[in-house]
Amino acid sequence: MTLAARAQELRLQPTPFTAYLDFHALAETKSGGRSFPIWLESFEINTEKSNDGDIEKTTFRLRFRRFSGLLDEMMLRVFFEDTQQPVVTAWSELGTRLLPPRQLGSKIGLPTSETLVLAMSSVDYVDIEVPGAGENVRGAFIASLHKTETHSASDFTAPASFADPFGNGPSSTPDSDDAFLFGRVRATLEKDVVPLKPGTASQFDFDLAAVPRIAIVTFEILNADIGAPPQISVNGRELGPATILLPDLADPAYQSTGRDTAFRYHGWLKCQKVVPGFALLAGTNSLTASSQKEDEAVAIRAVEVQLKYENK
């Protein structure tokens, strides 16, 4: 028997309360050709020059209309090359600063993005300032937010207060101490950001009192080529590439590299790798993460291992 699949109608998903602002494209577009949500009044780019004519600072200004109940809170996600750190502030029309300066990035030198949740009841405009001509700031994703109710187990960590619209999980917050629960031991191997240069590897050593039945290594990766995640090896045994947990492809953080079908994600993504128990040793173990690509760098952070033992 042959089953024929029926073609489905392609429906454009409406987003009246959401917009992605490509700053470079908007700089070249006349104001009449711009389409914004009703609560976004205008977008401006202002520069400050030195006496020599060099651009010292660029300000991307988003000016808003106040709509109580429609724009009480806003998601602002800024996409930028982390070379010059953008600073975000929010202001009233009278010049009262309503949001202290929030500096984004850590000057790691890789494409990234950061998200802020802003209270908008008294805000008339938001400034994104960056030293120089602003070429390292690609754009911003903005969306009106509403509150929802959820339930969580009493004995466990409460869920994040903000849900990413594209399904990307919240950043990890590794514990300083090991934790045991129902036969699982969870331990942090590295909290901080570790640059992974092209063609190089990073090694993490850890001690085990006993060999587990299975383990899972989890970490976050920045600027990942989604088709070429890092290779993982344990104690010299190659285990293959890690698995990247990918959000919706509508996410503006996906950027084509211009080569074949390669895409990189300009933000942090969670990765996981299953490690069979037979690859581990009682004593010192060595975990290695290595880049598959020879031409572009990534960074990893929040490296954690979970070990599964019999729950007695």
Number of strands: 21
Helix and strand composition category? mainly beta
First-to-last CA distance: 51 Å
User: What is the molecular shape?
Assistant: globular
Radius of gyration, CA atoms, in whole angstroms: 23 Å
SSE ordering: EHEEEEEEEEEEEEEEEEEEEE
Sheet with most strands = 8 strands, antiparallel
Number of helices: 1
Output mean pLDDT: 89
Strand and helix layout:
Elements: E1 18-22, H1 23-27, E2 40-49, E3 55-64, E4 73-81, E5 87-91, E6 97-103, E7 111-119, E8 125-131, E9 137-145, E10 179-181, E11 184-190, E12 194-196, E13 201-208, E14 214-225, E15 231-234, E16 237-241, E17 243-244, E18 254-256, E19 263-276, E20 283-290, E21 298-308
Could you characterize what this model shows?
The protein is mostly beta strands and 312 residues long. It is built from one helix and 21 strands. It has one helix spanning 23-27, and strands at 18-22, 40-49, 55-64, 73-81, 87-91, 97-103, 111-119, 125-131, 137-145, 179-181, 184-190, 194-196, 201-208, 214-225, 231-234, 237-241, 243-244, 254-256, 263-276, 283-290, 298-308. The strands form four sheets. Strands 10, 11, 12, 14, 17, 18, 19 and 21 form an eight-stranded antiparallel β-sheet that branches. A hairpin with a 2-residue loop joins strand 15 (231-234) and strand 16 (237-241). The longest helix is centred in the first third of the chain and has 5 residues, at 23-27.
